Structures are given as C-alpha cells and as structure tokens.
Amino acid sequence: MPRKSDLRQVDAVCRLHRMTPDQERQFRRLIHELKAAGEGGTANDRGDFTWDELDALAAEFVAGE
Amino acid sequence: MAAVVDFRGTVPRTRDDVRGLQPYIRQLVGEPFLFARESYGDELTLHFGQEVELPPFRGRRRTEGTHVLTLRASKWWIKSVPRAALVASDDPGPGLPGVPVTLRDLELNPPITPGERVAWVEVRPFYGVGWPGGIELAFRFSDGSFLELRPRYDPEDAVHDLADWELFTPYKRYIKAGPGVQWEYAPSDQPPADDAPPV
C-alpha cells in the first residue's frame, strides 16, 4: 500500500529544490532504485531516507540534470 | 462542426468539470503498455508508448516510457489477463482471499501484457462525504485487462494534499488529477508557478 507520509516528504524536498514535475517523477523513481540497490537511507529498517539525506540527493540530482 | 483539442496546450486548474479532462486522458488510447515500475513510497507507475533513455545518475542507466501514469497514494485494482488474477494496491485483510505481492513482483510479472494497447479510458468525479473526493480513472486494455483507480480516503488525514494520479506525456505536459475533484493540464518541464493549498 502506498505510504502517504513518504510521498509527502519527497514532494516537499522536490518543491524545495524547485524541481519540475518531470524531475520530481524521475527523482522519486531514482531514490527507489538507490534503496532497492542497497544504497538506501538511515531513517528506518526499510532503508528509507531522512529529510537531510533526501535533501542531499535532490541537490545531487538537480546538479546533474 | 468538428473540434480539435491540442495536446500541446495547457488548461489551468479546473474544479468539477471532469468532462474537460476526458480529451486529454484519451491521448493514451492506442499507446502500448511497456512496463510497471515501483517508485519511492510504494507508489506504482505504469509506462506506455515508447521507451526513452534518461540521463544516467551515478552511472546508472535509466529509461522510462513516453507516457507515464503515476498512481500516487490512490487505491487501484487491475484485472490481469496475463496473470489470470486480480491485483490490488492494498493488502488483503484477514480472512479475505488473496496473498500479498510486492511491486517488484509486478515489475517482473506485469499485470498487463507488454505491447498490448490502451483500448479505452474514462475519468469520473468521485465526491466524498466529509472529505473532498477526487477523480477516478478506468482503463481497458486490448488484452482484456482492466485497471481502475479510486482516490484514497484516510480519516486521519488532516489535509488532502496529494494528487490522485498524474499522466505525463511526450508533449512536456502532464495531467495532475486531484486532490479533490480538480485537475490541470500543465507544463511538466517548468517548476510549478504556485502550489495550490490542500483541499
């Protein structure tokens, strides 16, 4: 079942970094791929990302676009 | 007299007139299903059209469809012909038929036959009692599979701020449906001009 709290957190980080809707969609997929590849975050046992980790990833993603 | 709806146009945020959304969602008709992909937060995305390459990130090859449907936090169910099964977003409750399945499983064993086309699509307003409701979405595919999406109501939500679903198109436009019975057809390659307050 989708987790609204996670979606809201990522949406907020994307807005902070002034991402376009295309970038937001790609970023959401990207951070899932990182998590699935064992490069997840430290928020919990699922490997979800903390706010600071998402913020850093978003900055890296936007810089590379 | 005939009419033309330009898929490269835009429509500002519109409340309640779901009929006006119908032409824009119909641009999916005839497009082939490519694959399903999981996104962060257990969100399912469905990719249609042609597969396109994205810029790599940390050396990772990335692709997506020219048309991408994101199901956000909505409830969905798919009558899956290739799997001869019903696939749904929510875990089956105790005593109910069905076994849990991961979105990864849907990536590997898609619920819609790859290559089969969108045969029919419809949007409907869904008015909630005590909450703003949203916009339902229904698809039929040429392999006989069927997808239905309904906005999710969580009583503990203080605000309803998430879109019900989004459809991204190759014209640098996207449909943002919800929250509530509202939608817009906006540029997808520009940051939003403003964020609408939650419904």
Model description:
In chain A, 66% of the residues lie in helices and 0% in strands. Chain A has 65 residues and is mainly α. Chain A starts with a helix and ends with a helix. The model of chain A has no long low-confidence stretch (mean pLDDT 92). The longest helix of chain B is centred in the middle third of the chain and has 6 residues, at 103-108. In chain B, strand 5 and strand 6 form a beta hairpin. Chain B is built from two helices and twelve strands; from the N terminus they run E-H-E-E-E-E-E-H-E-E-E-E-E-E. In chain B, the strands form two sheets. In chain B, strands 1-12-11-10-4-3-2 form a seven-stranded antiparallel beta sheet. In chain B, strands 6-5-9-8-7 form a five-stranded antiparallel beta sheet, with no helix packed on it. The A-B interface holds A 1-4, 6-8, 10-11, 15, 18-22, 25-26, 28-33, 35-36, 61, 64-65 and B 37-45, 54-55, 57, 60, 62, 64, 68, 70-74, 89-91, 104, 152, 154, 157, 161-162, 166, 168, 172, 174, 176, 186-192, 195.
Labels describing this entry:
heterodimer, A: 65 residues, mainly alpha, 66% helix, B: 199 residues, mainly beta, 5-stranded antiparallel β-sheet, 2 helices, 12 strands, globular
Average pLDDT confidence of chain A is 92
Q: How are the strands ordered across the major sheet of chain B?
A: 1-12-11-10-4-3-2
Helix and strand sequence of chain B: EHEEEEEHEEEEEE
Task: State the major sheet of chain A.
Answer: none
Low-confidence stretches of chain A: none
Instruction: Tell me the β content of chain A.
Output: under 5%
Q: What oligomeric assembly is this protein in?
A: heterodimer
How many helices of chain B in DSSP terms? 2
Instruction: Please indicate the count of domains of chain B.
Output: 1
Averaged pLDDT of chain B: 91
Number of strands of chain B: 12
The largest sheet of chain B is: 7 strands, antiparallel
Number of strands of chain A: 0
Structural class of chain A: mainly alpha
- Secondary-structure-derived class of chain B: mainly beta
- Give the end-to-end Cα distance of chain B, rounded to a whole number of Å: 38 Å
* Helix content range of chain B: under 10%
Give the amount of beta strand of chain B, in percent.
35-45%
